[in-house]
Design goal:
By secondary structure, this protein is of the alpha/beta class. The protein contains nine helices and eight strands. It has an eight-stranded mixed beta sheet, with helices on both faces. The two termini are 35 Å apart. The structure holds zinc ion. The site of zinc ion (ZN) has 7 residues, from helix 7.
Length: 248
């Protein structure tokens, strides 16, 4: 499926950039992105991927919208309280590009429905749940699916992309070999700056476009941002010989 005339008008200012060759545009329209979690990171991330010309998006979130979401989860407004995040997100995103194909699941990803991620060009995990991240990472390693981990707590952001190429094992578990049930700081308990969530979404969107269109090499690169200090670091992640997933 090609972009429609309407879409060429919507994306006109971006598609005139020299990076967006006819080849890059053709590549972009065929990508199928899955975003797990439509919270502080997932909202700007999904909005900016659709705004950047991503046509095929699958989104997952079983949560209902609460008042304490409104300061950073920009797809939702006060009238949406109590409604499902995935359904409201789909409606809002279609208002930017009515010709995009958005599949919305009003459920969280767990051990029993990981197969819904199969066939994704990239799986992006913004769940803020260590247990869920661990099972998504394992599923993507076993099935050689590209996996992006994105998190923000307080004023700090960590985003890392793992290409999961066969024969070159480097994964989230290599980077953070914590137990599945470890009690890490979460936004719910220690708080999150609205700006940090927004920047995390945008940086994750840029890294996704970078790897899809080969704008920049993001393979196994951990991007760390101290939002308050406007400080960004890029660190190359290496294989951890003790990683339990090395055998895959
Ligand atoms: Zn590993």
């Amino acid at each position: 499926m090609n972009y429609s005339d309407l879409e060429y008008e919507i994306f006109a200012r971006q598609f005139i950039l020299k990076e967006y060759s006819e080849e890059a545009i053709t590549k972009l329209k065929d990508q199928k992105i899955s975003i797990i979690g439509l919270g502080g990171i997932g909202c700007p991330l999904s909005q900016y991927l659709i705004s950047s010309g991503i046509k095929n998006l699958t989104i997952f979130d079983g949560d209902k919208i609460e008042k304490n979401n409104l300061n950073r989860q920009m797809l939702y407004s006060i009238d949406d309280i109590g409604k499902n995040k995935a359904h409201i997100s789909k409606n809002k995103l279609l208002k930017t590009n009515p010709n995009s194909n958005i599949e919305a699941y009003a459920k969280n990803i767990n051990e029993n429905n990981l197969n819904l991620l199969y066939g994704s060009s990239v799986v992006i995990d913004t769940t803020d749940s260590w247990h869920t991240s661990k099972i998504i990472n394992k599923y993507c390693v076993i099935n050689s699916i590209k996996y992006m981990f994105s998190s923000a707590v307080g004023n700090h952001i960590q985003v890392c992309f793992f290409p999961n190429k066969t024969g070159e094992h480097i994964c989230l578990n290599c980077l953070f070999p914590n137990k599945d049930d470890v009690d890490l700081p979460r936004c719910e308990t220690v708080g999150i700056s609205a700006i940090a969530a927004g920047i995390a979404g945008l940086v994750t969107a840029q890294k996704t476009i970078n790897l899809l269109l080969n704008f920049n090499n993001e393979n196994n690169i951990l991007t760390l941002i101290n939002v308050m200090m406007a400080e960004i670091n890029r660190i190359k992640v290496k294989n951890n010989k003790d990683c339990l997933l090395n055998k895959y």
